[in-house]
Design a protein that fits this description.
The chain starts with 6 loop residues before the first strand and ends in a 9-residue tail after the last helix. The chain is about 30% helix and about 25% strand. The chain has a seven-stranded mixed beta sheet with strand order 10-9-8-11-12-13-14, sandwiched between helices. Strands 1-4-5-6-7 form a five-stranded parallel beta sheet, with helices on both faces. Strands 2-3 form a two-stranded antiparallel sheet. By secondary structure, the chain is an alpha/beta fold. It has ten helices and 14 strands.
């Protein structure tokens, strides 16, 4: 590794655990920075080290597991960027594994904002020169930017984890007899098919019918694919995020009626807001929830005993390392 003298790692408050792991992996210390709030909740930023002409990497994800406001982290991020810009940093690279407002990438009805685009404008106006995200909920969000945006996939980490902790050298015949991969909706189909293809497992897709008279309500779900041989199998549900858990529970209820006895959930961004933890704990069909640490899970793992965590720190560290040294990121997209 080279060119380290000109590199600054700067952590926001959203996922300090991940920032510290990346710092240790790269052997680059985290820049001392004071982030505090005034009594009226305004955020105050003070970078305590010289960053003039340095290449700054801000590590800040979209939310955390302490029920803090997503909007507070957005404002904190913008202020960190502005502080770096006014301190004459050479480049400002934002490592934001979980991109906030990613589900609001288009207008579903008249007189609605495109929130993901607005946030993109805010980031570029503030002054970032590059953005790194992971498993972007809507990949077209990359087109909202006129700067480089790298959408890194977690698939390789998921495959590595399940091969080691779930399949454990199981033969293809054994896997196909025991497991079926489920896409919880059409949006997750591409990700699910890539995982299933690598694992050589069969796939079914869930279609969800929403009740548009009631906001965020799902009336019915329909399985698409060969559902004749699901009895007593374990379903592996793959998705990019789990927020309130409502859709996930509906999917599992449908699988139960088709004979599924056990469910393993694999999620990149474990938001787990509102009543989600309670729903997951009460769903006895779920026996494992495998999630990355794009969002800090320190609190969730204390109250959700099914939770298993795989870390993205090495992958993000390799992204930073390749950017530092001018190497290609293409191999990291696999």
């Amino acid at each position: 590794m080279s060119n380290l003298d000109n590199i600054v790692l700067l952590s926001g408050n959203s996922n300090k655990t991940l920032s510290e792991k990346i710092s240790i992996y790269l052997d680059i210390h985290l820049c001392k920075c004071k982030i505090s709030t005034f009594s009226n909740t305004e955020i105050k930023i003070n970078i305590c080290e010289n960053i003039r002409n340095k290449d700054v990497f801000i590590i800040q994800t979209g939310t955390n597991d302490a029920n803090n406001s997503v909007n507070d982290y957005i404002m904190e991020t913008l202020l960190l960027i502005d502080a770096c810009k006014r301190s004459m940093a050479n480049t400002i690279n934002l490592i934001m594994p979980c991109y906030p407002y990613a589900r609001q990438d288009k207008k579903d009805s008249s007189r609605e904002p495109i929130s993901a685009k607005l946030f993109a404008n805010m980031l570029t106006t503030a002054g970032i020169t590059r953005l790194v995200v992971m498993d972007l909920h809507a990949s077209q969000i990359q087109g909202f930017f006129d700067i480089p945006v790298d959408n890194i996939y977690s698939l390789s980490l998921v495959i590595q984890y399940v091969n080691k902790n779930l399949f454990n050298n199981m033969s293809i015949t054994e896997k196909q007899k025991k497991y079926i991969v489920v896409s919880p909706d059409a949006g997750a189909t591409k990700r699910t098919l890539r995982f299933a293809q690598n694992m050589q497992l069969n796939t079914i897709i869930m279609h969800k019918q929403r009740n548009y008279e009631k906001e965020n309500t799902i009336d019915n779900t329909l399985l698409i694919g060969d559902t004749t041989n699901l009895k007593d199998k374990t379903a592996i549900i793959c998705d990019d995020m789990c927020d309130s858990g409502g859709t996930l529970i509906k999917v599992i209820e449908n699988l139960e009626t088709n004979g599924i006895k056990n469910v393993i959930v694999i999620i990149t961004h474990g938001i787990f807001s509102g009543q989600c933890i309670k729903r997951l704990n009460n769903c006895h069909t779920i026996n494992r929830i495998i999630v990355s640490d794009t969002i800090c899970q320190n609190n969730n793992k204390e109250i959700l005993n099914k939770l298993e965590i795989f870390s993205i720190y090495q992958l993000m560290g390799n992204v930073i390392n390749n950017i530092i040294n001018g190497n290609s990121l293409s191999l990291l997209f696999e």
